[in-house]
Amino acid sequence: VKRITTHILQKMKDDGEKISMITAYDYSMARIFDDAGMDILLVGDSAANVMAGYETTLPITLDNMIYHAASVVRAIKRSFVTVDLPFGTYQGNSKEALASAIRIMKETSAHSVKIEGGEEILESVKRIISAGVPVMGHLGLTPQSINKFGTYAVRATEESEAQKLLNDARLLQDAGCFAIVLEKIPASLAKQVAESVRIPIIGIGAGKHVDGQVLVMHDMLGINKDFKPRFLRRYLNLYEEIKKASQAYIHDVKAKDFPNDNEQY
Ligand code: KIV
Ligand code: NA
């Protein structure tokens, strides 16, 4: 199998082939996604929410991210793996940003890092890229800044914010980012961004006029029971499926039906 690289991802945009991306946090799920043909696996700091149960993504540590990322990388043969730098490991200090990215690359063998923000974090982006580490940008709804914005509502609906986002996308491209995630912004603005930069734009809640799509695996598989935003398409209802299977197992144990004579030594 041919491994996905940043060059292949760029060629996909140039050829009009959409890029598929999903989050993964552990070996077993990453193995399935890789085998299915997913182009990019994102070890997202959404692990703070879906794996650890925190309300925001702020508490997760670099050590936590490295544990998840190393587990994912051990499973993959083809997919490109990108890892979120967590809150507090890259903002405001580009040397610390580079040190964080280097720890990810050395201790996990992942292929790139992702960081939230535009102009504010440009120094960090440039320093990481200058060390040979590919960087994926992330604009629009940036969950690490939730305390600044106060809500998870759609972003860049106002002209000034839309202009800043367009400008940030160009700055990230010029700094050398190989792709950018756009989260929860109007489809018309996402289209404008995808048309005004050469690099792949990957959307979540950003409409169809972008170069690829990303979803959180728990959302795509219906494990997150009550999370049903407009942008989400669910491909399974795993919460109910796993609950039903669990109840069947409980029933069989209580009824002394499991194990039977063939299920013992
Ligand atoms: O952490 C994450 O899951 C993400 C995606 C929503 C893009 O950053
Ligand atoms: Na993230």
UniProtKB/TrEMBL annotation:
Its EC number is 2.1.2.11. Keywords: Cytoplasm, Magnesium, Metal-binding, Methyltransferase, Pantothenate biosynthesis, Transferase. 3-methyl-2-oxobutanoate binds at residues 45-46, 84, 114. SUPFAM superfamilies: Phosphoenolpyruvate/pyruvate domain. It catalyses: (6R)-5,10-methylene-5,6,7,8-tetrahydrofolate + 3-methyl-2-oxobutanoate + H2O = 2-dehydropantoate + (6S)-5,6,7,8-tetrahydrofolate. Mg(2+) binds at residues 45, 84, 116. Belongs to the PanB family. This is 3-methyl-2-oxobutanoate hydroxymethyltransferase.
